[in-house]
Design a protein that fits this description.
Radius of gyration: 41 Å
Distance between the termini: 64 Å
CATH class of one domain: Alpha Beta
Largest sheet: 5 strands, mixed
Structural class: alpha/beta
Strand content: 5-15%
Order of helices and strands: HHHHHHHHEEEHEHEHHEE
Helix content: 40-55%
CATH superfamily of one domain: Ribonuclease H-like superfamily/Ribonuclease H
Strand order of the largest sheet: 3-2-1-4-5
Number of helices: 12
Amino acid sequence: MLHPTSVGRSDQLQWRLSRRGTSLLYILTRRLTLVTLAFRSDRSKDLEIVVLRHELSILRRQVTRPELSDADRVFLAATSRLLPRRWSGFLVRPETLLRWHRRLVARRWAYPRRGPGRPRIDPEVVAMILRLARENPRWGYLRIQGELAGLGIRIAATTIRRVLAGAGLNPAGRRFGLSWRAFLRTQAASILATDFLTVDTVSFRRLYVLFFIELDTRRVHLAGVTAHPTAAWVTQQARNLAMTLGDALSDRKFLIRDRDVLFAGSFDRVFQSEGLRVVRTPVQAPRANAFAERWVGTLRRECLDWTLVFGRRQLEGVLRDYLAHYNAHRPNRAPSLFGPRGRRHVRSAGAIGWAG
């Protein structure tokens, strides 16, 4: 019979199947042999024992240490208790047989054991612990344990402390001080900004676009497009926005606008009635309303600079399509590359974190 390494894959498969078939046939033959012993005479059995002992002595002179499988050990250990204490018929020493038997008994009654040490922490839980600690620097490990318990995640406080210490974070949190990043994010959660932008049509007709932007989520609301803006028109757009946002507008505390004469007192009173404080930017200081100005630049670079506008209705359609993409799909670099509607903002005592 050829060795399996010297033939092809199909030949190897046939060789393995034939080998397994031979092993199975050998086991069945041996079992049948044990059954037939009951029908044989004592004289023939004694003669066979003498022959087997002689063959065993021959093998002992040639093999110093036989290789035994687990099945061989189980069989020898089990039969050693049934035979008289004459150990000369076995290939191993009596101490070895007794040790194998003790192992069988211990395995029979012992409970299943796991590996040494504590089980490893789920990597997702570790990532959540580090994220909570980084986005909420004033939280200690006990506070993080409570937040995780609210999510149904049970973990020991000492484990959280060890994870934070291993990542170089203070397990007790920062008791004093506030980073500029956390401060600005906290303030942005309560600010709404508004501004105008102008678009020139193909016929050189200028259109005015009024929009509002939420500073924390970067979500933009298109108020309206007109060729002749008036204070009454701007005030009506403010009322429409207040009706659209509803209770969500009450979460805002400030409205940033410039000193355009179109933002009359009636415009301010619409937001003041909702509990917002109107903050006017300094004279000729566009950076004071930087979020709105930045969005105007983004709109021009990504949309308006590549579009010919023929009229107001076309411009409204273009802006609605772009805002549907901007608010729902476009990743924003500042809030962790999430779109304004693709995340929820979570407020905390020291910072705001975003999650998809």
